[in-house]
UniProtKB/TrEMBL annotation:
Top-level taxon in the UniProt lineage: Bacteria
Origin organism lineage: Bacteria, Pseudomonadati, Pseudomonadota, Alphaproteobacteria, Sphingomonadales
UniProt KW keywords: Hydrolase
Organism, scientific name: Sphingomonas turrisvirgatae
Record's protein name: N-formylglutamate amidohydrolase
InterPro entries linked to this entry: N-FG_amidohydro, UCP029730
MF (Gene Ontology): hydrolase activity
Amino acid sequence: MTMPHRIDGAADLLILCDHASNGVPAGIDLGIDPMLLNKHIAIDIGAGAVSEAMATLLDAPAILATVSRLVIDLNREPDSAGLIPLVSDGHAIPGNQAADRTDRIARFHAPYHAAIASAIRACRPRLLVSVHSFTQRLERHDGPDRPWEIGILYNRDARAARRAIAAFTAAGVVTGDNEPYSGRILNATMNRHAEANGIPYIGIEIRNDLIGNPAGVAHWAEICSQIVSSVRDHLAEGAGREP
């Protein structure tokens, strides 16, 4: 069993990072060139560092994955075909062909989501924040560069997302509304822990060329923290007006 990295904090929000790590536990051989572990297919570049910086700036608890999504994608449902990828962005992952799905869920997926559920029960956060990063373009597909600096993802519950989109846009950030991916399709962690519990959330995607170094991480963590704080405060004010 591999547990996620937990950061303590006093704020009434919870930061999550599903793809913070490119770790491959002992006993698992993906059968790939090790250099691929430094690519986006293995880790959301910069997302873990931004999550940690935001946790510090906001004094917020955070839960970060400690295993690569090439081992198991924690932002997928257990019955998803992409849970244990056989191919990612054109790269074959031959070591996953004979993977024991039940074992990997028990060792990695279940403990991660159990830790999130436990944290929510313990503190009932006012807001969940999920941090990811995305590439300027898909490596194996032709197409235009992705222009967004930030993307905000959401599914049915847009309470926090709509306000975050407006705030990022007002701050001069090129912001995608359910771009570059739609939260109506890729939103497993937030569907499970936010929407299912009625907790507002912000799914933040940051273009990874902007957070590939410490200066970029610090810059975007500051911007994201300010907007997350403002959204959280707005939610608190709204709750205070309820009869």
